Amino acid sequence: MRVALVLGLLGQMLVRFAAVFVAPLVLAAWDGVTREVIGFAVGGVVAAAGGALLGRLRTTGTRVHRSETLATVAGAWLVMAAAAGVPLLFVGLSPVNALFEAMSGLTTTGGSVFTDFSAYGRAVFLWRAILQWIGGLGVIALFVVVLPSLGIAGRQLFFTEASAAADEGIAPQVRRVARRLWSVYATLTLSQTALLSWYGMPTFDALCNAMATTAAGGFSPHGAGILGYANPACEWVFVAYMFLAGANVALLWRVASGRPLAFFRDPEFRAYTAVVVVAVALVALQRPGTPWAAETLREAAFQVTSIISTTGFASTDYNQWADGARMVLILLMFVGGCAGSAAGGPKVVRCMIVGKHCGRELVRTLHPQAVLPLRLGRAILAEDVLRAVVAFLVVYITAWAATSTALVVLGMDLVSGATAAIACLSNVGPGLGSVGPMANYDHLSDAATAVLVAAMWIGRLEVMTVLALLRWDVLGHLRWRGGGNR
After folding, report:
1. Are the C-beta atoms of residues 348 and 336 closer than 8 Å to each other?
2. pTM confidence score
3. Among 135, 162, 229, 274, which is disulfide-ready with 106 (CB 3.0 to 4.6 Å)?
Protein backbone atom coordinates (compact mmCIF):
# COMPACT_ATOMS: atom_id res chain seq x y z
CA MET A 1 0.00 0.00 0.00
CA ARG A 2 1.36 3.41 -1.01
CA VAL A 3 1.12 5.76 1.97
CA ALA A 4 1.81 8.89 -0.09
CA LEU A 5 -1.10 8.14 -2.40
CA VAL A 6 -3.52 7.65 0.51
CA LEU A 7 -2.35 10.86 2.19
CA GLY A 8 -2.71 12.70 -1.09
CA LEU A 9 -6.31 11.56 -1.50
CA LEU A 10 -7.07 12.55 2.08
CA GLY A 11 -5.54 15.96 1.44
CA GLN A 12 -7.78 16.56 -1.57
CA MET A 13 -10.82 15.73 0.53
CA LEU A 14 -9.65 17.94 3.39
CA VAL A 15 -9.26 20.95 1.10
CA ARG A 16 -12.88 20.63 0.00
CA PHE A 17 -13.96 20.09 3.60
CA ALA A 18 -12.51 23.50 4.49
CA ALA A 19 -15.41 25.16 2.64
CA VAL A 20 -17.86 23.72 5.19
CA PHE A 21 -16.46 26.05 7.87
CA VAL A 22 -17.80 29.12 6.05
CA ALA A 23 -21.47 28.89 7.12
CA PRO A 24 -20.85 28.72 10.89
CA LEU A 25 -18.12 31.35 10.54
CA VAL A 26 -20.58 33.76 8.94
CA LEU A 27 -23.23 33.01 11.59
CA ALA A 28 -20.74 33.54 14.42
CA ALA A 29 -19.73 36.89 12.89
CA TRP A 30 -23.40 37.86 12.50
CA ASP A 31 -24.06 37.02 16.15
CA GLY A 32 -20.87 38.80 17.26
CA VAL A 33 -19.33 35.82 19.10
CA THR A 34 -15.64 36.57 18.69
CA ARG A 35 -14.16 33.34 20.06
CA GLU A 36 -16.34 31.29 17.69
CA VAL A 37 -15.37 33.48 14.73
CA ILE A 38 -11.72 32.85 15.54
CA GLY A 39 -12.33 29.14 16.08
CA PHE A 40 -14.04 28.54 12.74
CA ALA A 41 -11.52 30.72 10.92
CA VAL A 42 -8.61 28.78 12.38
CA GLY A 43 -10.35 25.46 11.70
CA GLY A 44 -10.94 26.36 8.07
CA VAL A 45 -7.34 27.45 7.60
CA VAL A 46 -6.02 24.29 9.25
CA ALA A 47 -8.18 22.11 7.00
CA ALA A 48 -7.28 24.04 3.83
CA ALA A 49 -3.55 24.31 4.56
CA GLY A 50 -3.19 20.74 5.81
CA GLY A 51 -5.18 19.41 2.89
CA ALA A 52 -3.12 21.38 0.38
CA LEU A 53 0.12 20.00 1.78
CA LEU A 54 -1.14 16.41 1.76
CA GLY A 55 -2.77 16.81 -1.65
CA ARG A 56 0.62 17.47 -3.26
CA LEU A 57 1.57 13.86 -2.54
CA ARG A 58 -0.93 12.37 -4.99
CA THR A 59 0.04 11.67 -8.59
CA THR A 60 -2.74 12.36 -11.11
CA GLY A 61 -4.00 9.28 -12.89
CA THR A 62 -2.48 6.80 -10.43
CA ARG A 63 -4.59 3.66 -10.13
CA VAL A 64 -5.89 3.14 -6.60
CA HIS A 65 -5.83 -0.42 -5.27
CA ARG A 66 -8.26 -1.96 -2.82
CA SER A 67 -6.13 -1.65 0.32
CA GLU A 68 -5.50 2.00 -0.53
CA THR A 69 -9.22 2.54 -1.07
CA LEU A 70 -10.00 1.08 2.35
CA ALA A 71 -7.27 3.17 3.98
CA THR A 72 -8.63 6.33 2.36
CA VAL A 73 -12.17 5.57 3.53
CA ALA A 74 -10.98 4.92 7.09
CA GLY A 75 -8.60 7.87 7.13
CA ALA A 76 -11.20 10.33 5.86
CA TRP A 77 -13.24 10.06 9.05
CA LEU A 78 -10.14 10.59 11.19
CA VAL A 79 -8.66 13.62 9.43
CA MET A 80 -12.02 15.35 9.04
CA ALA A 81 -12.97 14.71 12.66
CA ALA A 82 -9.62 16.15 13.74
CA ALA A 83 -10.17 19.27 11.62
CA ALA A 84 -13.81 19.56 12.72
CA GLY A 85 -12.74 19.53 16.36
CA VAL A 86 -10.52 22.61 16.03
CA PRO A 87 -13.33 25.22 16.45
CA LEU A 88 -14.54 23.35 19.53
CA LEU A 89 -11.19 23.95 21.23
CA PHE A 90 -11.98 27.67 21.16
CA VAL A 91 -15.24 27.23 23.09
CA GLY A 92 -13.62 25.46 26.03
CA LEU A 93 -13.49 21.77 25.15
CA SER A 94 -10.38 19.73 25.85
CA PRO A 95 -8.63 18.13 22.84
CA VAL A 96 -10.07 14.69 23.63
CA ASN A 97 -13.58 16.03 24.16
CA ALA A 98 -13.38 18.15 21.00
CA LEU A 99 -12.39 15.07 19.00
CA PHE A 100 -15.20 13.10 20.63
CA GLU A 101 -17.82 15.73 19.74
CA ALA A 102 -16.54 16.05 16.17
CA MET A 103 -16.34 12.28 15.63
CA SER A 104 -19.80 11.90 17.16
CA GLY A 105 -21.08 14.42 14.62
CA LEU A 106 -19.43 13.00 11.51
CA THR A 107 -20.31 9.42 12.39
CA THR A 108 -23.90 10.55 13.18
CA THR A 109 -23.63 9.08 16.67
CA GLY A 110 -25.08 12.01 18.58
CA GLY A 111 -23.40 11.39 21.93
CA SER A 112 -22.28 14.71 23.39
CA VAL A 113 -19.90 16.12 26.00
CA PHE A 114 -21.80 19.43 26.18
CA THR A 115 -23.12 20.24 29.65
CA ASP A 116 -24.19 23.90 29.66
CA PHE A 117 -25.81 24.63 26.28
CA SER A 118 -26.15 28.32 27.15
CA ALA A 119 -22.37 28.62 26.97
CA TYR A 120 -22.35 28.20 23.19
CA GLY A 121 -23.58 30.38 20.35
CA ARG A 122 -25.78 29.38 17.45
CA ALA A 123 -22.77 28.82 15.21
CA VAL A 124 -21.62 25.87 17.32
CA PHE A 125 -25.03 24.20 17.11
CA LEU A 126 -25.15 24.82 13.36
CA TRP A 127 -21.69 23.27 13.10
CA ARG A 128 -22.82 20.13 14.92
CA ALA A 129 -25.85 19.86 12.62
CA ILE A 130 -23.70 20.33 9.51
CA LEU A 131 -21.26 17.64 10.64
CA GLN A 132 -24.08 15.17 11.10
CA TRP A 133 -25.70 16.05 7.81
CA ILE A 134 -22.41 15.48 5.99
CA GLY A 135 -21.83 12.27 7.90
CA GLY A 136 -25.28 11.01 6.99
CA LEU A 137 -24.58 11.50 3.32
CA GLY A 138 -21.31 9.70 3.71
CA VAL A 139 -18.11 11.75 3.59
CA ILE A 140 -16.80 9.69 0.71
CA ALA A 141 -20.01 9.90 -1.33
CA LEU A 142 -20.02 13.66 -0.85
CA PHE A 143 -16.60 14.14 -2.35
CA VAL A 144 -17.09 11.79 -5.29
CA VAL A 145 -19.14 14.56 -6.87
CA VAL A 146 -16.58 17.32 -6.26
CA LEU A 147 -13.52 15.21 -7.00
CA PRO A 148 -14.14 13.91 -10.54
CA SER A 149 -10.39 13.78 -11.06
CA LEU A 150 -10.37 10.56 -9.00
CA GLY A 151 -11.87 8.69 -11.97
CA ILE A 152 -12.12 4.99 -11.20
CA ALA A 153 -10.83 5.71 -7.68
CA GLY A 154 -13.91 7.80 -7.11
CA ARG A 155 -16.06 4.82 -8.08
CA GLN A 156 -14.15 2.57 -5.71
CA LEU A 157 -14.42 5.05 -2.86
CA PHE A 158 -18.14 5.52 -3.29
CA PHE A 159 -19.02 1.86 -3.37
CA THR A 160 -16.81 1.11 -0.36
CA GLU A 161 -18.61 3.73 1.70
CA ALA A 162 -22.16 3.39 0.43
CA SER A 163 -22.45 0.25 -1.60
CA ALA A 164 -25.89 -0.66 -0.31
CA ALA A 165 -27.26 2.76 -1.23
CA ALA A 166 -26.11 2.35 -4.80
CA ASP A 167 -28.11 -0.62 -5.94
CA GLU A 168 -29.89 -1.01 -9.21
CA GLY A 169 -32.79 1.20 -8.18
CA ILE A 170 -30.93 4.49 -8.49
CA ALA A 171 -28.45 4.64 -11.36
CA PRO A 172 -25.31 2.92 -12.61
CA GLN A 173 -23.21 6.09 -12.76
CA VAL A 174 -21.63 6.92 -9.43
CA ARG A 175 -21.86 10.70 -9.73
CA ARG A 176 -25.55 10.46 -10.62
CA VAL A 177 -26.03 8.15 -7.62
CA ALA A 178 -24.39 10.70 -5.31
CA ARG A 179 -26.43 13.60 -6.70
CA ARG A 180 -29.68 11.68 -6.33
CA LEU A 181 -28.70 10.70 -2.79
CA TRP A 182 -28.22 14.42 -2.10
CA SER A 183 -31.64 15.20 -3.53
CA VAL A 184 -33.35 12.65 -1.25
CA TYR A 185 -31.56 14.01 1.80
CA ALA A 186 -32.22 17.63 0.91
CA THR A 187 -35.91 16.96 0.31
CA LEU A 188 -36.30 15.18 3.65
CA THR A 189 -34.39 17.91 5.49
CA LEU A 190 -36.28 20.85 3.99
CA SER A 191 -39.70 19.24 4.31
CA GLN A 192 -39.12 18.34 7.96
CA THR A 193 -37.83 21.84 8.68
CA ALA A 194 -41.01 23.29 7.20
CA LEU A 195 -43.25 20.97 9.20
CA LEU A 196 -41.46 21.59 12.50
CA SER A 197 -41.65 25.35 11.92
CA TRP A 198 -45.35 25.04 11.04
CA TYR A 199 -46.00 23.32 14.36
CA GLY A 200 -44.27 26.03 16.37
CA MET A 201 -40.60 25.13 16.66
CA PRO A 202 -38.19 28.09 16.17
CA THR A 203 -36.86 28.05 12.60
CA PHE A 204 -33.19 27.73 13.55
CA ASP A 205 -33.94 24.86 15.91
CA ALA A 206 -36.17 23.25 13.28
CA LEU A 207 -33.35 23.34 10.71
CA CYS A 208 -30.72 21.92 13.08
CA ASN A 209 -33.05 19.18 14.32
CA ALA A 210 -34.12 18.29 10.78
CA MET A 211 -30.52 18.01 9.60
CA ALA A 212 -29.76 15.71 12.52
CA THR A 213 -32.89 13.62 11.89
CA THR A 214 -32.24 13.10 8.18
CA ALA A 215 -28.71 12.00 9.00
CA ALA A 216 -29.91 9.70 11.82
CA GLY A 217 -27.68 11.80 14.04
CA GLY A 218 -29.28 13.12 17.21
CA PHE A 219 -27.59 16.44 18.01
CA SER A 220 -30.19 19.01 19.10
CA PRO A 221 -29.60 22.70 19.85
CA HIS A 222 -31.77 22.33 22.97
CA GLY A 223 -30.03 21.16 26.14
CA ALA A 224 -32.91 18.83 27.04
CA GLY A 225 -33.16 17.41 23.54
CA ILE A 226 -36.60 17.03 21.96
CA LEU A 227 -38.08 16.79 25.46
CA GLY A 228 -37.24 20.47 25.89
CA TYR A 229 -39.74 21.56 23.23
CA ALA A 230 -42.74 19.81 24.86
CA ASN A 231 -44.55 19.71 21.52
CA PRO A 232 -46.49 16.49 20.78
CA ALA A 233 -47.19 17.46 17.16
CA CYS A 234 -43.48 17.96 16.49
CA GLU A 235 -42.73 14.63 18.13
CA TRP A 236 -44.97 12.82 15.64
CA VAL A 237 -43.12 14.61 12.84
CA PHE A 238 -39.86 13.29 14.27
CA VAL A 239 -41.29 9.76 14.46
CA ALA A 240 -42.13 9.80 10.75
CA TYR A 241 -38.80 11.24 9.61
CA MET A 242 -36.68 9.08 11.91
CA PHE A 243 -38.46 6.06 10.49
CA LEU A 244 -37.60 7.22 6.96
CA ALA A 245 -34.01 7.96 7.99
CA GLY A 246 -33.61 4.29 8.85
CA ALA A 247 -34.86 3.15 5.42
CA ASN A 248 -32.69 2.35 2.40
CA VAL A 249 -32.09 5.56 0.43
CA ALA A 250 -32.33 3.61 -2.83
CA LEU A 251 -35.78 2.48 -1.81
CA LEU A 252 -36.79 6.06 -0.97
CA TRP A 253 -35.60 7.14 -4.40
CA ARG A 254 -37.67 4.45 -6.12
CA VAL A 255 -40.77 5.49 -4.18
CA ALA A 256 -40.14 9.18 -4.95
CA SER A 257 -39.75 8.24 -8.62
CA GLY A 258 -43.35 7.01 -8.77
CA ARG A 259 -43.09 3.43 -7.55
CA PRO A 260 -44.85 3.46 -4.16
CA LEU A 261 -45.27 -0.32 -4.10
CA ALA A 262 -41.48 -0.62 -3.74
CA PHE A 263 -41.96 -0.26 0.03
CA PHE A 264 -44.10 -3.40 0.15
CA ARG A 265 -41.94 -5.42 -2.22
CA ASP A 266 -38.69 -4.90 -0.30
CA PRO A 267 -38.21 -7.73 2.25
CA GLU A 268 -35.85 -5.72 4.43
CA PHE A 269 -38.24 -2.76 4.67
CA ARG A 270 -41.09 -5.10 5.58
CA ALA A 271 -38.99 -6.63 8.34
CA TYR A 272 -37.87 -3.17 9.51
CA THR A 273 -41.51 -2.05 9.73
CA ALA A 274 -42.52 -5.22 11.58
CA VAL A 275 -39.73 -4.80 14.14
CA VAL A 276 -40.81 -1.19 14.78
CA VAL A 277 -44.48 -2.14 15.23
CA VAL A 278 -43.72 -5.03 17.59
CA ALA A 279 -41.20 -2.98 19.59
CA VAL A 280 -43.65 -0.09 19.99
CA ALA A 281 -46.28 -2.51 21.30
CA LEU A 282 -43.85 -4.13 23.74
CA VAL A 283 -42.63 -0.78 25.08
CA ALA A 284 -46.19 0.56 25.39
CA LEU A 285 -47.19 -2.50 27.40
CA GLN A 286 -44.30 -1.84 29.79
CA ARG A 287 -45.28 1.77 30.39
CA PRO A 288 -47.49 2.75 33.36
CA GLY A 289 -51.15 3.52 32.68
CA THR A 290 -53.19 2.51 29.67
CA PRO A 291 -50.84 1.03 27.01
CA TRP A 292 -52.81 2.46 24.11
CA ALA A 293 -53.20 5.98 25.50
CA ALA A 294 -52.05 8.68 23.04
CA GLU A 295 -49.17 9.87 25.22
CA THR A 296 -47.94 6.34 25.90
CA LEU A 297 -48.00 5.40 22.22
CA ARG A 298 -46.28 8.62 21.24
CA GLU A 299 -43.44 8.11 23.73
CA ALA A 300 -43.06 4.46 22.73
CA ALA A 301 -43.12 5.21 19.00
CA PHE A 302 -40.67 8.09 19.41
CA GLN A 303 -38.06 6.13 21.35
CA VAL A 304 -38.36 2.97 19.28
CA THR A 305 -37.89 4.79 15.96
CA SER A 306 -35.14 6.92 17.50
CA ILE A 307 -33.15 3.90 18.66
CA ILE A 308 -33.65 1.54 15.70
CA SER A 309 -32.78 4.32 13.24
CA THR A 310 -29.81 5.14 15.54
CA THR A 311 -30.87 8.79 15.63
CA GLY A 312 -30.69 8.93 19.41
CA PHE A 313 -33.16 11.73 20.14
CA ALA A 314 -35.11 11.54 23.40
CA SER A 315 -38.58 12.87 24.09
CA THR A 316 -38.53 11.49 27.63
CA ASP A 317 -36.03 10.13 30.12
CA TYR A 318 -36.30 6.46 29.21
CA ASN A 319 -33.54 5.80 31.72
CA GLN A 320 -36.39 5.79 34.27
CA TRP A 321 -38.53 3.27 32.36
CA ALA A 322 -39.19 -0.28 33.52
CA ASP A 323 -36.45 -2.80 32.79
CA GLY A 324 -38.58 -4.57 30.17
CA ALA A 325 -38.98 -1.40 28.09
CA ARG A 326 -35.30 -0.52 28.42
CA MET A 327 -34.33 -4.04 27.37
CA VAL A 328 -36.32 -3.65 24.16
CA LEU A 329 -34.40 -0.44 23.40
CA ILE A 330 -31.06 -2.14 24.08
CA LEU A 331 -31.93 -4.98 21.71
CA LEU A 332 -32.83 -2.44 19.00
CA MET A 333 -29.31 -1.00 19.29
CA PHE A 334 -28.05 -4.39 18.11
CA VAL A 335 -30.32 -4.24 15.05
CA GLY A 336 -30.02 -0.74 13.55
CA GLY A 337 -31.70 0.51 10.39
CA CYS A 338 -31.79 -0.78 6.83
CA ALA A 339 -28.72 -1.24 4.66
CA GLY A 340 -28.08 1.82 2.51
CA SER A 341 -29.53 4.21 5.09
CA ALA A 342 -27.85 6.80 7.28
CA ALA A 343 -28.47 4.54 10.29
CA GLY A 344 -25.70 2.67 12.06
CA GLY A 345 -25.79 -0.74 13.69
CA PRO A 346 -25.49 -4.22 12.14
CA LYS A 347 -28.53 -3.50 9.87
CA VAL A 348 -31.84 -5.32 9.55
CA VAL A 349 -30.85 -7.30 6.45
CA ARG A 350 -27.90 -8.94 8.22
CA CYS A 351 -30.12 -9.94 11.13
CA MET A 352 -32.59 -11.43 8.62
CA ILE A 353 -29.89 -13.44 6.89
CA VAL A 354 -28.51 -14.84 10.13
CA GLY A 355 -32.03 -15.67 11.31
CA LYS A 356 -32.72 -17.56 8.08
CA HIS A 357 -29.38 -19.36 8.43
CA CYS A 358 -30.20 -20.45 11.99
CA GLY A 359 -33.61 -21.69 10.84
CA ARG A 360 -31.98 -23.70 8.07
CA GLU A 361 -29.53 -25.28 10.51
CA LEU A 362 -32.42 -26.34 12.75
CA VAL A 363 -34.07 -28.09 9.81
CA ARG A 364 -30.75 -29.74 8.90
CA THR A 365 -30.58 -31.18 12.41
CA LEU A 366 -33.53 -33.37 11.45
CA HIS A 367 -32.79 -33.64 7.72
CA PRO A 368 -29.00 -33.50 7.28
CA GLN A 369 -29.13 -34.38 3.57
CA ALA A 370 -31.70 -31.72 2.65
CA VAL A 371 -30.76 -29.10 0.04
CA LEU A 372 -32.05 -25.84 1.47
CA PRO A 373 -31.03 -22.69 -0.40
CA LEU A 374 -31.40 -19.44 1.51
CA ARG A 375 -33.61 -16.79 -0.06
CA LEU A 376 -34.01 -13.11 0.63
CA GLY A 377 -37.09 -12.07 -1.27
CA ARG A 378 -36.69 -13.63 -4.70
CA ALA A 379 -32.91 -13.77 -4.53
CA ILE A 380 -30.99 -16.87 -3.53
CA LEU A 381 -28.14 -15.99 -1.19
CA ALA A 382 -24.72 -17.29 -2.12
CA GLU A 383 -22.79 -19.14 0.57
CA ASP A 384 -19.96 -16.59 0.48
CA VAL A 385 -22.48 -13.83 1.31
CA LEU A 386 -23.73 -15.88 4.24
CA ARG A 387 -20.19 -16.46 5.50
CA ALA A 388 -19.42 -12.75 5.27
CA VAL A 389 -22.55 -11.78 7.19
CA VAL A 390 -21.96 -14.33 9.95
CA ALA A 391 -18.32 -13.25 10.24
CA PHE A 392 -19.36 -9.60 10.44
CA LEU A 393 -21.82 -10.20 13.27
CA VAL A 394 -19.33 -12.30 15.21
CA VAL A 395 -16.70 -9.58 14.89
CA TYR A 396 -19.28 -6.90 15.74
CA ILE A 397 -20.32 -8.63 18.97
CA THR A 398 -16.65 -9.21 19.81
CA ALA A 399 -15.91 -5.51 19.30
CA TRP A 400 -18.82 -4.62 21.59
CA ALA A 401 -17.59 -7.04 24.27
CA ALA A 402 -14.04 -5.70 24.06
CA THR A 403 -15.20 -2.08 24.21
CA SER A 404 -17.52 -2.80 27.15
CA THR A 405 -14.72 -4.53 29.03
CA ALA A 406 -12.33 -1.66 28.43
CA LEU A 407 -14.85 0.92 29.66
CA VAL A 408 -15.67 -1.04 32.83
CA VAL A 409 -11.96 -1.53 33.54
CA LEU A 410 -11.52 2.24 33.11
CA GLY A 411 -14.08 2.95 35.83
CA MET A 412 -17.58 2.87 34.33
CA ASP A 413 -20.30 0.79 35.95
CA LEU A 414 -21.49 -2.31 34.10
CA VAL A 415 -24.79 -0.92 32.73
CA SER A 416 -23.26 2.40 31.66
CA GLY A 417 -20.19 0.77 30.14
CA ALA A 418 -22.05 -1.92 28.21
CA THR A 419 -24.68 0.45 26.82
CA ALA A 420 -22.16 3.21 26.06
CA ALA A 421 -20.18 0.66 24.05
CA ILE A 422 -23.10 -0.45 21.87
CA ALA A 423 -24.48 3.12 21.65
CA CYS A 424 -21.19 4.34 20.17
CA LEU A 425 -20.39 1.24 18.12
CA SER A 426 -23.89 1.34 16.57
CA ASN A 427 -23.78 5.17 16.33
CA VAL A 428 -26.90 5.58 18.47
CA GLY A 429 -25.59 8.17 20.94
CA PRO A 430 -27.16 7.91 24.40
CA GLY A 431 -27.08 4.71 26.41
CA LEU A 432 -28.33 3.97 29.92
CA GLY A 433 -27.08 4.74 33.41
CA SER A 434 -24.61 7.60 33.59
CA VAL A 435 -24.75 8.05 29.78
CA GLY A 436 -28.54 8.06 29.55
CA PRO A 437 -30.64 10.39 27.38
CA MET A 438 -30.63 13.24 29.91
CA ALA A 439 -26.93 12.81 30.72
CA ASN A 440 -23.76 13.16 28.61
CA TYR A 441 -20.25 11.79 28.16
CA ASP A 442 -18.40 14.72 29.75
CA HIS A 443 -17.74 12.92 33.05
CA LEU A 444 -15.68 10.13 31.49
CA SER A 445 -11.91 9.93 31.78
CA ASP A 446 -9.79 10.85 28.77
CA ALA A 447 -8.93 7.17 28.29
CA ALA A 448 -12.59 6.09 28.26
CA THR A 449 -13.48 8.94 25.92
CA ALA A 450 -10.69 7.88 23.55
CA VAL A 451 -12.03 4.30 23.58
CA LEU A 452 -15.47 5.57 22.57
CA VAL A 453 -14.00 7.75 19.82
CA ALA A 454 -12.43 4.60 18.40
CA ALA A 455 -15.73 2.71 18.80
CA MET A 456 -17.65 5.38 16.85
CA TRP A 457 -15.06 5.33 14.09
CA ILE A 458 -14.93 1.54 13.88
CA GLY A 459 -18.72 1.26 14.01
CA ARG A 460 -19.26 3.76 11.22
CA LEU A 461 -16.80 1.81 9.06
CA GLU A 462 -18.65 -1.39 10.00
CA VAL A 463 -15.66 -2.94 11.78
CA MET A 464 -14.27 -5.07 8.95
CA THR A 465 -12.69 -2.16 7.08
CA VAL A 466 -10.51 -1.29 10.07
CA LEU A 467 -9.59 -4.90 10.84
CA ALA A 468 -8.69 -5.56 7.22
CA LEU A 469 -6.17 -2.72 7.35
CA LEU A 470 -4.54 -4.22 10.46
CA ARG A 471 -3.69 -7.48 8.71
CA TRP A 472 0.01 -8.21 8.32
CA ASP A 473 -0.26 -8.61 4.55
CA VAL A 474 -1.32 -4.94 4.46
CA LEU A 475 0.92 -3.48 7.17
CA GLY A 476 3.84 -5.58 5.98
CA HIS A 477 3.65 -4.05 2.48
CA LEU A 478 3.54 -0.38 3.38
CA ARG A 479 5.56 1.76 0.99
CA TRP A 480 5.86 5.51 0.64
CA ARG A 481 5.28 5.52 -3.13
CA GLY A 482 6.21 2.38 -5.07
CA GLY A 483 5.38 -1.27 -4.41
CA GLY A 484 2.81 -2.71 -2.04
CA ASN A 485 -0.02 -2.23 -4.46
CA ARG A 486 -2.40 -4.85 -3.21
Report:
1. yes
2. 0.89
3. 135
